[in-house]
Hints:
alpha+beta; 3 domains; seven-stranded mixed beta sheet; 8 helices; 22% helix; 30% strand; disordered N terminus
Amino acid sequence: MGRHRRPTATGRRRVLLATAAALVAVPLSSGPAPARTFDQSYLVPAGGTFTVHGHGFGHGHGMSQYGAYGAARAGLTYRQIMDFYYPGTSWGTARGSLRVLVTSDTSRDVVVSPAAGLAVRDLGSGTVYPLPVLDGVKRWRLNVSGTRTVVGYFTTSWHRFSPGGRAGLDGDGELRADVPLTLWTPSGARVYRGALRAASPSAGSADRDTVNVVSLDDYVRGVIPAEMPASWSAEAVRSQAVAARTYATWSRDVNPGRYWQICDTSACQVYRGVAAEDARADAAVRATARQILNYGGAPAFTQFSSSSGGWTSAGSRPYLVAREDPYDGRTANSVHTWRLPLSAARIQRAYPAVGVLQRLRVTARDGNGEWGGRVATIVLDGSRRDVTLSGDTFRSVFGLRSSWFSF
């Protein structure tokens, strides 16, 4: 993909739908603890603006990143940190490669800069064709002619190249080199290790999506600094390495046959390739090389979030438990406890069906922590009708940091 086409069906939307489908497809061993029901009513203040008091940032399942930092500062090793946040899991190893969807490349071609040892591999025949060093060539690309993958190069215009004398490839193609590849996307250049594949979303499709085929540990190198400051305590950064590697391995196992196995956004976990790499994060990858967490003989679903707010939230697996988190809040953390204004007018604009908002009613919480825990259900009580929302929906619509809030 590269520059010259309409977005495919389309990067981010496809990622979110496919990720959701993957989650649904995996059998759940157990569910979160049942929410406790009651009715906490909050009348609209005279000034028309609620003050939202909250704890934490994110869903609260699994590892708190600020908690890992606090635990490391308290002297825990990365293994002790992981055992705390994912109780009941066991240690194992994983290796191999991973197929990562590059969502920023919304065009149909894969365009790269010339590089030492640049070659194209035909996934249909398995043949690898070294690409020549030609004067004046500024770019190489994989594009589509009809439904067939073709190879080209750019000087002052694009020219067709016939690898092995063939007009096109037998199957999808990928570019690889002896060094990291510079990929040109509509938003600029990005650098990746491994291979860059022009992948067909389905058999016979004229569309292509860019997929980075990369070793598991090289992938983790591009994740850690995008998810956690590499300057944090070494044991915290090592914890992030294990959590990221395990999550990627879980996603790979869930999607063994799909043309991509994980995406590069927060819909999966953020991956930025070589640009994100940091010597301190690289050291964490080496120190934890190939290590993952398992549960029941398979990679664990190691969800993590920025801050638990002092109490983790029960998730969809037995090891994603609700428990007090004594480590979150031990270090400077602006999201451990927070407050934000939220006007009744803003709520009415988002949900005009309520008419004039009269009060907010929290009718169910998850039963853990201060205030009874994270909001499971909230009702917008209006002059025309009531609207019932999940706590996560309310959080998302109004930009709250977590669903653990009160008024």
